[in-house]
Amino acid sequence: MNNIQAGSAVVSDTMLTGNQESTPVDGQGNDEKATADGDAGAAASVAASQQAQPQEEERYCWVCFATEEDDKVAPWVQPCNCRGATKWVHQSCLKRWIDEKQKGNPYKSISCPQCQTRYIIILPSMGSFAFLLERLDIIAKQLSPGMAAGAIVCSIYWSAITFGAVTVLQTTGFERGLSMMEQAEPIALLLCLPTIPVLLVIGRMFRWEDIVLRFLQNRQFDVRKYPVISLMLPVSNEPSPRYPEPYPSSTITTSEPLSVTRIFCGALLLPTVSTVVGKILFKSIKNDLHRTLLGGFVFVAVKGVLKIYFHQKKHNRAKQRQILDYTPENVRKYTLRTQPPEGQHQHGQQASQLDRNRADLVEGTG
After folding, report:
1. Quick one: which of 101, 208, 278, 299 is 20 to 30 A from 136 by CA?
2. pTM of the model as a whole
């Protein structure tokens, strides 16, 4: 009996010992599981950060197209509302680009060329004295174009006054012209003298010769009614052909295009030429003004008649021109006269080739 009680006591002690030993083992398993879960979460967060980090570091400058790997020291800036690849730019590249746009004016506002966002540009203070010098420099730059234009206009005005005064002295005589200007009011001189070169230029722009040429070249004009004109000018007495005419006169331009330099020089030289012609042809006339006016009239008339004659000759030549067939005979007769040696050799080869082709064609038809 006593032995049975002792065995049960030993069994119970053994079971208690097993329970006590099994309890730490279960706690240790839970700790290991929690550690594994923490490690997995940390690995997932690291992987997510590694995936997000390359997206943030993908930068390239839209000015120089360099990436962050090309220059890891250069500072970057996001100056506008652009998104994506164009939102980043180097500070130094953006400063150079802004300098090109501002063109020396640091207060000029600059905007993004893509999203039109105005850049926020901060200028450090240079001091009150330097700021005053800067404002004076800006004012000088703004006033310089107007002052230059005013100087040019004044120079032209006083040059016109001088030319008008010289023209008056030249056409009316020195003594008479000087007395006239001394007796005149200063305001009248300041207003009238500059108009002399202006009137000369305007008169030079009126080309009366073209009106006469158009009259002579008109198909309705019958020159046989005016035999004197046919003796003086190269006008054909043949009747004008009816429509359709082989050489339409509407396609022939004989008038010269307007040349500003030629008009200007001709207008300014007209008083001098008129004075010289008047002194040569009209010595008997004592009045200098009358002599100069007659000399100018004769010069303009003779010059116009010569111009009409020359352009009428050109008109007749243009009406009588012909375009020949491209044959070996015409090539040898006309083209080779005006061609250089190399061109003559080439045209000679072409003409010989045409002769051979024509001979072959004749033989084939025969």
Report:
1. 101
2. 0.54
